[in-house]
């Protein structure tokens, strides 16, 4: 079994988090923009490509905020994720001003419905994955120092 690297964007504007909206049997859920690293691609190159593909935005990549592992067999979606082991690198990003409309890009994520903005003050009420990131994003916006490595969380 291989370990997959993934780069994710944490984009906070006007006290809102930019996310991708999807739907499953339990209803709507949200994920951070980004995706899998390809061979010979740096994490920054991955993140820039994925943001253009998924949210139609060129991003300026800032600091690495969090690293999380996802070992599928250890979590609630084990029935279809049991073989997945992914390491996600979550970077603080800003959208670079352009004439482009922020929304679904040219290669949206599988099942992607739209690009949304969730109010950080209300983020605990949304099914945002990884769910453990919700309280970390709130703490970050309040200026609290947090560990970078989050472990195997969902």
UniProtKB/TrEMBL annotation:
Taxonomy, superkingdom: Bacteria
Annotated CDD domains: NUDIX_ADPRase
Protein species of origin: Oceanobacillus neutriphilus
The organism's taxonomic lineage, starting at the top: Bacteria, Bacillati, Bacillota, Bacilli, Bacillales
Keyword Hydrolase among UniProt keywords: yes
Keywords: Hydrolase
Name the record gives this protein: DNA mismatch repair protein MutT
Pfam families linked to this entry: NUDIX
Domain Nudix hydrolase: start-end pairs: 1-146
UniProt cofactor(s): Mg(2+)
């Amino acid at each position: 079994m291989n370990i997959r690297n993934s780069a994710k964007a944490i984009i906070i504007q006007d006290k809102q988090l930019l996310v991708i909206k999807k739907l499953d049997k339990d209803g709507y859920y949200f994920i951070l923009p980004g995706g899998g690293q390809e061979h010979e691609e740096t994490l920054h190159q991955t993140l820039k490509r994925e943001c253009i593909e998924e949210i139609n935005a060129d991003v300026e990549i800032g600091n690495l905020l969090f690293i999380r592992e996802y070992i599928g067999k250890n979590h609630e979606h084990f029935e279809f994720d049991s073989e997945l082991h992914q390491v996600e690198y979550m970077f603080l990003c800003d959208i670079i001003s352009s004439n482009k409309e922020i929304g679904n890009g040219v290669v949206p994520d599988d099942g992607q419905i739209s690009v949304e903005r969730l109010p950080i003050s209300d983020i605990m009420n949304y099914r945002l994955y990884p769910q453990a990131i919700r309280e970390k994003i709130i703490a970050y916006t309040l200026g609290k120092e947090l560990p970078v490595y989050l472990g195997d969380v969902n």
